[in-house]
Amino acid sequence: MIKDIEGFWEAIDKVRQEKGMNWVDLVGGNTKLAKEKRLNLSLRNILKIQEILGINILSILPYGTFEPAVKVVKNPETTNKMNQIYELTKSDNWMANEETVQRVQEIGRTII
Questions:
Q1: Which of 34, 66, 76, 106 has a CA between 20 and 30 Å from the CA of residue 18?
Q2: Within 10 Å of residue 100's Cβ, how many Cβ atoms?
Q3: CATH code for the structural domain at 5-60
Q4: So where are the chain's domains?
Q5: Which pLDDT score is estimated for 101?
Q6: Using one digit for the tens of pLDDT, what is the confidence trace for 84-106?
């Protein structure tokens, strides 16, 4: 069962070895951190690894592993705000536009 980042990398390493792939194929220049099971990836990069390995990473995460200690009350506006952030950050160079970065930060602050 995957409980932490080390468990995640152990599962990825097992699949990587079964597929006969090397670390560079999956994480490029971050090979050392991945081998040490310390690389903390963005969701975008996790989904890229999933595609490269031809697996569904969510299927290796057991349901119920991430139950919060406190009941979380979801704000109904959060979905709309996340969609706004997604639209603003779709392009590869969104961070080059200061206005876009500020808008994403403003929206993000209202979610937290």
A1: 66
A2: 15
A3: 1.10.260
A4: 5-60, 78-111
A5: 92
A6: 999 999 988 889 999 999 999 99
